[in-house]
């Protein structure tokens, strides 16, 4: 199962999400997109998921806490307990045996980030 995880500001635009996903490796083979539960209903993310014909998988913030990620943002770590929301969300949804195939990539406007993980989906 291949999953794109996203971190973004509330005012994110669809173009920023697309750009971050493209920078992370693109949408080929994606089974889902993932983000924090409180941002899963964001219009731009829902629009991207619709375009890709995949579900949005919300991840509770407490599930992300403690997830070890190669990218380390001190701001994100202080707020969520992990270095990268995008990487941690992708890993969480991809399953227990997941691994990152693309570390966090950031849109040019710095509003969205994306990472891609593969796993067993369990």
Categorize the overall geometry: globular
The major sheet is characterized as: 5 strands, mixed
Average of the residue pLDDT scores: 92
**Percent range of helical residues:** 25-40%
Trace the largest sheet across and list its strands: 3-2-1-5-4
For the termini, the CA-CA separation is 9 Å
What order do the SSEs take from the amino end to the carboxyl end, as H and E?
EHEHEHHHEE
Q: What is the quaternary state of this protein?
A: single chain
Q: State the helix count.
A: 5
- Structural category: alpha/beta
Beta-strand content? 25-35%
The poorly predicted ranges are none
Radius of gyration: 12 Å
Give the number of DSSP strands: 5
What's a quick, concise take on this entry?
Helices cover 34% and strands 27% of the residues. The protein is of the alpha/beta class. The model has no long low-confidence stretch (mean pLDDT 92).
List the helices and strands and how they pair.
Elements: E1 2-8, H1 14-24, E2 30-36, H2 43-52, E3 56-59, H3 61-64, H4 74-80, H5 85-94, E4 99-106, E5 112-118
Parallel strand pairs: 1-2, 2-3
Antiparallel strand pairs: 1-5, 4-5
Helix pairs in contact: 1-2
Please provide a written account of the structure.
The protein is α/β, with parallel strands linked by helices. It has helices at 14-24, 43-52, 61-64, 74-80, 85-94, and strands spanning 2-8, 30-36, 56-59, 99-106, 112-118. Strands 3-2-1-5-4 form a five-stranded mixed β-sheet. Helix 1 crosses helix 2. The protein starts with a strand and ends with a strand. The mean pLDDT is 92.
């Amino acid at each position: 199962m291949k999953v794109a995880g996203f971190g973004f500001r509330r005012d994110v635009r669809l173009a920023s999400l697309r750009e971050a996903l493209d920078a992370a490796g693109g949408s080929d083979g994606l089974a889902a997109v993932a983000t924090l539960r409180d941002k899963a209903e964001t219009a731009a993310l829902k629009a991207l998921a619709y375009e890709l014909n995949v579900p949005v998988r919300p991840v509770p913030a407490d599930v992300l806490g403690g997830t070890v990620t190669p990218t380390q943002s001190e701001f994100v770590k202080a707020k969520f307990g992990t270095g990268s929301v995008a990487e941690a969300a992708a890993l969480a949804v991809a399953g227990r045996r997941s691994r990152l195939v693309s570390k966090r990539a950031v849109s040019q406007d710095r509003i969205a980030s994306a990472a891609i993980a593969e796993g067993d989906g369990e």
